[in-house]
Specification:
The chain is α+β, with helices and mostly antiparallel strands. It is built from 19 helices and 15 strands. About 45% of the residues are buried.
């Protein structure tokens, strides 16, 4: 730690409203390593910890304090004399790695207390919001370990998350191999938030009506949530979320099955539209989730929806209702849209597409033809997300101080929504600390209605789908013949 604290420089990193669109949540993963060769010096504690603090030299933002100004803007303040160091814990467990692995890494068989920071960005017992939390859990008989790492989402998205994890691993492996100097990252990262606005075009493009209404017309609820402090907001959201009985399960679709499904769907797609694997999977998830949610007859929504709905019944989010529409929301990376992929920008440059699907269409039997209709709609929305659209979106949220909390307020009020995010392109299974790469990664979600598309651990091919839903909805999903004939359940 001393090497970091003695070299870090004080700085203030302004966070943009785009960063803060994810400002209510964390990015938490539990990552599993097996001691395959049964070596005594398996991922040694001291070297893991030393490497962590050396890796922070490249990511000093993770030792910053989240500050909110009077005008609703946020920043990460790195004060060398008052650092907000990440929480770093290590513990042991009497559960063997093989027992966790044989259960498909089901969370029910994990040791207690692995997750030290949940899905909501909230303060710890001391009332402090840490930018990062680490918990190393060593399993019985040195059979393996669980590395839990959570980073607040407004600081980094999944790209930045795995960039840090992989850099930490590279530093540790180099140390164990006798390196004298800390290895530099494979690429040079930039944390300058102004890079986004500097690369926006002068041209602007009108937002779709749904997105415009949600962000340009803030609700009473969102204004209030934006006004209170991040600490208070985190406590409230964490408390409300505690009333939901959600479960997270992972399903797998093979490359061959996905190819067959995509080919079948493309036969019914209008000419000129070429749907991707992501489009097809989002369509399948939309229909499956909507059918299960409707069948489970959750007429009043969950507790969070009912409570927040009573606070503000006039929000513009009334566009959607569980009776007539179901919203599919897609988290989209704007880096390729504005041409900054090569900048290796570490931040949270994402916006969310809100796609409304008539419930009657979603409740139709799942066939290649019915999937094609939704997949085509998804593709049209994604194709419309170009640089001028991004420019208008950023202009809109910059002009409304409470805009950053709009998605949180919307998702909390509307149970008939599915939020999807695609993590398949990230280097998720390349973090080798010196004893081999991870065997499994579990994304921690607590809000029902979340689906994460993830790469498969080698040598498995295809896509893993992590779904967070309520128990009655899961029961209906498992009874869906089309879904279960397309995927296999891992846990």
């Amino acid at each position: 730690m001393e090497k970091f604290t003695s070299t870090v420089k004080s700085q203030v990193i302004s966070l943009s409203p785009v960063d803060m669109l994810s400002g209510a949540v964390n990015t938490p993963y539990a990552i599993f390593y097996q001691n395959t060769d049964a070596v005594d010096d398996f991922m040694p504690s001291e070297q893991l910890k030393t490497a962590f603090y050396l890796a922070l030299q490249t990511f000093p933002i993770l030792a910053g304090h989240l500050r909110q100004s009077g005008d609703g803007r946020f920043s990460m303040v790195v004060d060398k004399d008052n650092l907000n160091m990440p929480e770093y814990l290590e513990s042991t467990s009497d559960i063997h790695y093989k027992d966790i692995k044989s259960a498909g890494f089901d969370k029910k068989v994990w040791p207690g207390g692995v997750v030290t920071a949940g899905a909501i960005m909230a303060p710890d017992a001391n009332g402090i919001i840490r930018a990062a939390n680490v918990h190393i859990v060593r399993l019985k008989d040195n059979s393996g370990l669980i590395l839990f790492l959570s980073i607040i989402h407004c600081v980094v998205d999944a790209f930045g998350y795995f960039a840090f994890l992989n850099h930490w691993a590279a530093v540790c492996k180099a140390m164990r191999n006798g390196a004298v100097e800390v290895p530099r990252p494979l690429v040079e990262f930039t944390f300058d938030r102004f890079i986004v606005e500097q690369n926006l075009p002068t041209e602007r493009k009108q937002l779709d009506p749904t997105t415009s209404s949600i962000f340009a017309q803030p609700s009473i609820l969102s204004k209030w949530l934006a006004w209170i402090s991040p600490v208070t907001r985190g406590r409230i959201l964490r408390f409300l979320l505690s009333f939901t009985a959600s479960e997270t399960h992972v399903f797998h679709i093979t490359d061959s099955t996905l190819e067959t499904l995509r080919s079948s769907v493309r036969e019914f797609v209008p000419e000129g539209i070429r749907v991707s694997d992501n489009d097809v999977l989002v369509a399948l998830l939309s229909k499956t989730y909507a059918q299960a949610l409707h069948s489970a007859q959750e007429k009043g929504g969950n507790v969070v929806t009912r409570v927040l709905g009573s606070i503000d019944s006039t929000t513009s989010g009334q566009l959607f209702g569980i009776e007539r529409h179901h919203a599919t929301n897609i988290a989209c990376d704007i880096r390729p849209r504005i041409g900054i992929v090569d900048k290796n920008y570490v931040g949270c440059p994402q916006l969310i597409l809100f796609i409304s699907n008539p419930l009657d269409n979603l409740l139709m039997s799942t066939t290649a033809e019915s999937l094609a209709s939704i997949a085509s709609s998804v593709r049209r929305f994604i194709d419309s997300l170009d640089a001028p659209y991004v420019g208008t979106f950023i202009d809109t949220i910059n002009s409304v101080p409470s805009s950053f909390i709009q998605p949180t307020a919307y998702f909390a009020k509307h149970s008939a929504t599915l939020l999807t995010s695609n993590h398949t392109r990230f280097r998720m299974f390349e973090a080798d600390f010196g004893n081999g790469c991870q065997e499994w990664a579990a994304f921690i979600k607590e809000r029902p209605g979340n689906a994460i598309l993830m790469p498969c651990p080698p040598p498995l091919k295809g896509v893993n789908i992590s779904m967070c839903v309520e128990a009655p909805v899961l029961k209906k999903i498992l009874a869906n013949k089309f879904w279960m004939s397309t995927v296999s359940q891992i846990n």
